[in-house]
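Supplementary Data S3. Sequence and structure tokens for construct A.
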Amino acid sequence: MSPATAVRAPGVPRTLALALLARVPPSALGLLIVLQIRHLGHSYALAGAASGACALGMAAFSPVLGRAIDRTGQTLVLILTGATVTLACALFAIIPAGAPAPVFLGVAAAIGAMQPPISACVRVLWRRILDREGFNALVTLDASLQELAFMTGPLVLISMASATGAAAALAASGVLLGLCAASFALLPETRRLGGPQRHHDLDTIRPAGGALSAPGVRLLLVVATMLGIAFGATELSIVTAAEDLGAKSATGLLFALWGVGSFAGGVLWTRAHAADRDPVRAMFWLIVICGITSLPLGAAPSIAVLGIGLAAAGAAIAPLFGVLYSLMPDVAPPGTLTEAFTLETSAITGGMAIGSATAGAVASSVGAPASFVLAGAAYIIGGLVQRARAGALSPAAAPAPARTPAAA
């Protein structure tokens, strides 16, 4: 199935549109939390801690939501989390300046924990309604398009915060996320999907260890963590490099060029029908390309050269995400696919936190060029681990489903 055919498949256009819209609020929530706390007169330390609590809440709780969806279906969980995250964002917006620090941290963590896992849900849905080639092409295209959401979200919502205040922008983000979750939950495709008891898993039960019982899932999570470390290190390195080059105001443009490179690379990869090639081999070479193009970025003599280098370094990222997402259904045990996708997201998020913190320490002690080397090294280590354990990514490596007594 070609990418164009996959996009036109019944149910795909509206689920793709909703998934992209749902990514806009999360792309700016951390920044809005920082702006609101600073508006109330608190320190950057509290602002950073609250933003970190939001990310930590999402990373820790997302797999729990994924497991619940695998057991009960998407509709109920998405509606409940959508309503809860809307209320949590509204609550954060009205916390008074005199509230103790734990209140800010607790509500921020709740915002992260209750973010509806729409991206994981839409991938599970697409895997059910598309053949393998169509799914692979669509998740690569989706990985490219999400770069637009990640660039648009901060631009629109931070501009709104400047005009109306961070509190209003934060509350609006919660409302938008809640509406997206409810809309997605009530789609006919979502309601037909149901829980495991309604999608041909009548004779199976989940493995005791859930998605983590599969060696392929564990390997993909290691790779995802290394990619997250590389992304976090690159983000921090962009900020420090721009400052070292005397062009701090160009930081936003550099991030945009990195994202544009990823978007363009994903579109070209999809148009070339590369998603139907051997995904295991493609993953290794895409990781290597990311590593090789990231290593020399710290030596860029000017902002212009750094921008061109970042666009080149980003070109393999969207295709890499597409391959990462396409492999997960092959190795996840039956009845655990949503959990597996949410674990993947948590691994990337946790890796980004590690990468950002480590790169900050490296940049402070050695300099910005060394922090870019850290990003390149993280990519290459991830690629070597994947190459060494590539056999775990065979569909046969997933644990066989257990039979219920009734089916035995």
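Construct B, processed identically:
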Amino acid sequence: MAREFRFGIGVRSIRSAARLTEKVRRFADQGYDVVHVPDHLGAPAPFPVMMAAADAADIRVGTFVLNAAFYRPALLARDAAAVDLLSGGRLELGLGTGYVREEFEAAGIRYPSAGERVKHLQDTTVYLKQTLPGLPVLIAGNGDRVLTIAAHHADIIGLTGGGLASADNPDPMAERVGFVAAAAGDRFADVELNLAITAVPTEDSGVPDLTLTRAYFPQAGDDQLLAMPTVLSGSPERIADTLRAHRERYGVSYFTVQDYHGDYFARVINAMR
């Protein structure tokens, strides 16, 4: 039985409480299921924003994703429990290893090695699952070590599309899903797969803005980027068909877009429901 589709939307900036309330209510009316907040220095603080979003509308809230290395597990569990309680159980806590060295330096925190950050992510996840067993935890990443932690512990696994196709690996997304399935074993059937969409059309031309996607793959040509499962092109009806095909091929049923994709992608949601 295929999972029901879910749709998340990221909020990257806030101008005022009133504007946030208006934005979140519009997203809820458009059919989005979850408002996602990132965790970067220079961006709004995740926990207050999630609480304000939960107060604004009957919509789930989540982090996409917290820099786990910024937090001690017990303190993170305390804050997550409070938001989950005050939102009526609407929190989905997304975690990642953290990767921007400059943010650690700005925060006065030593930049751990990749291995240390992965180990801390695992320790944090295990602590959260033991302390708050009913709280849905999302882990996002692409590498073997992070996806192994996700496969063993997460309720939701955030995929990034696996990278660019090549002769050796013509479908990186399928390869990553296969890796997760093997690592998860019997629990794979209970795991929800999420895909972070990086490009969506914003007008009726159906041509997506590839700026964000190109930032991750600066040497790639447009044809390579347009072929990625994280890039959506065409009319809302065509994109709806693409997402149905993604669910059939990869098992992904939960898609996250950015707030500037919101109005166009809302037409996709309408085409699917």
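The first strand starts at residue 6 and ends at 10. The chain has eleven helices and nine strands.
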